Amino acid sequence: MFFLFFIFMFSNLGGVSEDSSFPFYQRIIFGFYSFIEYVFRFLVPSKFYFLNPFPITPGDSLPFYFYGYLLLTIIVCFYIFINIKKSKYIVLYGFLFFLLNLILVLHIFPLPRTIVTADRYMYLSVIGASLILIWQIDQIIVSRSLKFRYFFSIVFLFWIIFLSIQTFNRTIEWYNTETIKASVFEIVDKGQKKNDSSIFNLIEG
Fold first, then answer.
1. Structural domain of residue 84, as residue ranges?
2. Residue 179 domain-assigned?
3. What's residue 178's pLDDT?
4. Which of 24, 30, 150, 163 has its CA 20 to 30 A from that of 69?
5. Residue 74: inside a domain, yes or no?
């Protein structure tokens, strides 16, 4: 992983300057944002975009709601901490597997990219998240009654149907180059409706 990181950095030398990089505190907030986004996309995989640009350009102030991702990160860490105290180390292992495979793309290190998140970075890390989810579901089912297990099975069936529909929709969006770019146009349209020129400028860049 670190080897690939250095290859990426050296292949993009000259792509980042101090003027084009976000300040450290903003990169930290983007790190919290990216982390929670990856968790959310794992749990509720919906509305994926071909391109996920930064919400601002370097030099702009950060939207206040982004600081809420710090609180969400604390909640996730609290969940991990509680399970570690109960000696449920499988949760710690899954969390570290998830985090360590994302840590280099959470913007703590300034990289020559105009995207804040990318779904391809999750391909390996979701193994750790899946481990936690499967374990947690097992813990819930084992400790409940038979009626609850039937109810949970029905909910799980609808969840599988939802994921199947999402998978089918993705095959439509990724049918060819034009359908893939359509999601980018949707981002531009949203930015223009909000009079947000930063999104459009980042996409143009």
1. 2-143
2. no
3. 77
4. 163
5. yes
Q: pLDDT digits over 48-81, tens only?
A: 777 777 888 888 888 888 899 999 999 999 999 9
Q: Quick check: is 156 in a domain?
A: no
Here the tokens at position 164 are 């199947």
Number of domains in the chain: 1
Hey, CA dihedral for 40, 43, 44, 47, is it positive or negative?
positive
State phi, psi for 115 to the nearest 5 degrees: -115, 145
Sorted by sequence, the CB contacts under 8 Å of residue 170 that are 6+ apart come out as: 48
Q: Tell me the average pLDDT of the chain.
A: 79
| Contact between 173 and 35 (Cβ < 8 Å) | no
Find all residues with CB under 8 Å of 167, minimum gap 6, and list them: none
What the block records as the tokens of 71 is 């609180």
Dihedral in degrees, nearest 10, Cα atoms 134, 139, 140, 142? 120
Most confident of 5-9, 42-46, 200-204: 42-46
Position 113 in a domain: yes
Q: Are 32 and 68 in contact (CB under 8 A)?
A: no
